[in-house]
Amino acid sequence: MKKAMIFNIQRYSIHDGEGIRTIVFFKGCSLRCPWCSNPESQSTNKEIMRKEVLCINCSSKNIFDCKQSPEFCPTNALEWVGNEMTVDQLVEEVMKDHIFYNSSGGGVTLSGGEVLVQGEFAIEFLKKLKSLGIHTAIETTGHGNWNILDDMSDYLDEVLFDLKIMDNQRFKEVIKGDGKLIKDNFIKLVNKGVKVTPRIPLIPTFTMDKDNINSIIEFLETNKINEVHLLPFHQYGSSKYKSIGKEYTLQKLEPSSKEQINRIKDIFISKGFTVTVGG
Amino acid sequence: MKDTSIRIKVLKDQLLENKREISLERANLYTDSFKQSEGKSSILRRALATAHILENVNIAIKPHELILGDRTIKPRSGIASPEMSPYWILDEIDTMYSRPQDKFYFTKEDKTIFKEKLYPFWDGKSLKDYVDSKMSEQVKQAINIGIVKINQTDKGQGHIIPTFEKIFSNGLAFLIDEIKDKLKTNVENDFLHAGLITLESLKKYMLRYAHLATTLALEESDYNRKQELIELHDICTKISHEKPQSLHEALQLFWFVNLALQYESNASSISTGRFDQFMLPFYRQSISDGIEEEYCRELLRCLWLKMNDVVLLRSEDSAKYFAGFPTGYTIILGGVDKAGRDATNELSYIILETYGDIRLPQPNIGVRIHEKSPMEFLMKVAETIRLGTGIPQVFNDEVIIPGYLNRGVSLEDARDYAVVGCVELSLPGKTYGLHDIALFNLLKVMEVTLDKHKENITSFDMLINEIKNTIKEYVKYMVDGSNITDAAHGLIAPTPLLSCFIDDCVAKGSDVSTGGAIYNFSGVQGIGISNLSDSLYVIKKAVFEDKDISLSELHHILHNNYHNNEIARQRFINKYDKYGNDIDEVDYIGSDILSYYCREVEKYTNIRGGIFQPGSYTVSAHIPLGEAVGATADGRLSKEQLADGGLSPMVGRDKNGPTSVLKSVSKLDNYLTTNGSLLNVKFSPSVLDGVEGLRKFVNYLQGFMRLKIQHIQFNIVSAKTLKDAQKNPLKYKDLVIRVAGYSAIFVELNKAIQDDIINRTEHGM
């Protein structure tokens, strides 16, 4: 039985698409955004997270020196991130909230990491969900193989598609990936008739400059898209970097003020877009 | 209402400005009457005492008042009832003002009166004396050990919803004539005599207000107030015999009857019922008579303030179980009507909105929802919940009505259910349900069972069977204790006035306490199901499946309250699944035991010919009931609280979010707990942001309804809670903060971000 590496299943998600949703987070990502709020999502491997605040120092004065296994750790201060699951196990888990999908028009969203990294498994999973009549969506960076995305989109009601940095050179420098691939995939999806909703992370000094915003607008207008989600930068994921043994470079970056967010929101509105701040 | 009217502001300030005092006025009048009525039957003496109070108690009309009548002239006074028990009052006479919960001030003069006049008179004659003399050793042992708690052994019974149907459609004079008529052929019936005495004194009580209104009108220099007082005089005079027509008349009559019922028994939870149904004709009449809607709203706000004036004086122990002196002016809105159609109307909305203008603990508003509830009403409910006061609570017709059918209630009556006190289900105007007569501590049952059988239990099934045997044994004692208390109220504290407002007491010629009502339940609450599921699951896994530890070793650890065993305790908390996370294997353990408890309870009848029916709720009783239980295998320390509510997961143990909590609760057989059950769910305010947030919240409520759970109440997480979580992270591991596209465990965020969230919560994020 094929398995996927999943790092979280979040029920009652209400800010990420239609209705009440369950988000399945696939582990592994081909990009490295410096503002990533789920650093534990990047590697495809199982990892140990060390949560200082939960540690009762039963075996070590410092959790980062602790030699115990997560299985031993009595408070789950040491915890495995990443759980191998089969399609059937995942279906069983997400169907637990079926009654709420029905009452709200919600469903299941596959997120990451990057779901395309485990694309074949995800297609199997989505097929099964569709056969049960579940509303499906993915949240994707779009950074992956078109054929997989193409197949996957046959079983999707909606694609929430990140648009971050439009300049290919700068994209490569900051995020370590191929910006052109993403744009091509976006266009192909739209041309195929898939419902694509762009999500734009508003990261001060990275994505919020005039040029970038204008390029996004131009790109979307060309593709006849008139709805966007704006996702303001936050620091909620910052403490996780240390937990997972990674370095976080944006510690000092201040989240934007409401005014700054509204300024960008207004630009989109003035161009005729429907804008949702948050999901 | 954007700006509170001056009237409401002044009345609200008046209500809250003084410290709460004890008033002995009722006790004195009651005792004086009893000194005169020696030799008469108990029910006549009660009626004469009530009449003596109604005819002599000090009354006042305060500036700006549109609804008249207070129990005491000083707002929010606690009323002592030495006829129920003079003992605890004497014991606590000097500590009532310093106790931790629900403080009252006792003046020096009153202390003297109590000690020299009231106590000596009631010593040996109170309800409590009777109850104590009848309790068997076994019942006493069940109480002392901490499995059974019997309520109302030293206070009024209450927990009832009177009907206003007859007085509203015919007037007080009709009720008086009816009882006189009945007396012609039943001259010997003391209940009917008693009813007549109290009804006639109710009439006099109203006329006293009419008279006072005239007196004040003559002295009043302000023209507008003078007109108001003249109108109040007319209203009081009219409703003292005729049926009401306008909303103002109906509200005033409603309130006078409620005050009189308070004087009669000084009891908790003489509740209000389906206010949007029985007040609707009067509201519509007033509107069609050209009364402005805003004036109707002002009248309702005045009544809501009045409901906060009645506070209940409880003993220090009782105040722990029922903190915040809940008086139980519980109003139920919406739901289906007797024909099964949606009953929501304009008044349902207005009541929610005027509650939002006042935002005090009373009235305690609940709404009934069902498959056909209008979306607009559900949105209004969500908006009101967003205010963050926990009001309204939500009840589910889709499970409560079928539950009643299973108890032999007619479909029409079942569809007309309402709520008594906190969450107790009742059929208004037809039920004397003793809804709060006893609590049964299921977690203590497990402890007692383990203490007794730790050496000889060899399998999990055997443990479950022994627990069931203990339940069976102690349910019997609980029933005995409840029936003794039930009988005591019939003998010593009948309530003839109240009985005139419950069908079919007058027709049967019998007080509610002696079986006059149509429905005669006794409601007993099984508590601790969440901790029990969690503990038994740990035992199942660790002892019987994984064999990590023997039962007697575990017992030893628990017996020593996890002393030097913090690692084991943390493992029990964190390494085993818990109730509230939608995991069948855990949830079904508690479900089976709660069902067993329900089935045992159902076997018994009470002395009024009714059946015992189970419920599962605590008000604040999860704290004292927790104090009675030693450490448990779910990682709970000795004396630590139980899970709150009744059906809620243990605090900090539900980690899969609010839908999985509902799923776990839905695995209990919620058709059986017909006395009522209680579920608290925590939400962070951001979840209800904007129209979209409200809509999804409504969808959540619809899911709740379809899962056939009886009740839900929302705690919108406050900044205070977040601050506490910041200090005690291990206690709040379940606290999820949801923002756009992301959710985080609050305690795992760093301090600066936590502070930011606290800050935004304080300012309505």
Automatic annotation (TrEMBL), chain A:
Enzyme Commission code: 1.97.1.4
GO molecular function: 4 iron, 4 sulfur cluster binding; [formate-C-acetyltransferase]-activating enzyme activity; metal ion binding; transferase activity
Residue ranges of every copy of the Radical SAM core domain listed in the record: 15-274
InterPro entries the UniProt entry points to: Aldolase_TIM, BssD/PflA/YjjW, Organic_radical-activating, Organic_radical_activase, Radical_activat_CS, rSAM, rSAM_sf
EC class of the enzyme, as a word: oxidoreductase
Domain of life: Bacteria
Cofactor(s) of this protein: [4Fe-4S] cluster
Protein keywords: 4Fe-4S, Iron, Iron-sulfur, Metal-binding, Oxidoreductase, S-adenosyl-L-methionine, Transferase
Family listed: Belongs to the organic radical-activating enzymes family.
Xref: PANTHER family: PYRUVATE FORMATE-LYASE 2-ACTIVATING ENZYME, PYRUVATE FORMATE-LYASE-ACTIVATING ENZYME
Name the UniProt record assigns to this protein: [formate-C-acetyltransferase]-activating enzyme
Organism: Alkalibaculum sporogenes
UniProtKB/TrEMBL annotation, chain B:
All copies of domain PFL, residue ranges: 6-637
Lineage of source species: Bacteria, Bacillati, Bacillota, Clostridia, Eubacteriales
EC number in record: 2.3.1.54
GO cellular component, one term: cytosol
Name of the molecule in the record: Formate C-acetyltransferase
GO molecular function: formate C-acetyltransferase activity; lyase activity
Database matches in SUPFAM superfamilies: PFL-like glycyl radical enzymes
Record keywords, A-Z: Acyltransferase, Lyase, Organic radical, Transferase
Domain called Glycine radical: residue spans: 645-765
PROSITE patterns linked: GLY_RADICAL_1, GLY_RADICAL_2, PFL
Species this chain originates from: Alkalibaculum sporogenes
Superkingdom of the organism of origin: Bacteria
Residues modified as Glycine radical: G741
CDD domains in the cross-refs: PFL2_DhaB_BssA (cd01677)
InterPro entries referenced in this protein's UniProt entry, alphabetically: Form_AcTrfase_GR_CS, Gly_radical, GRE, PFL2/GDeHydtase_fam, PFL_dom
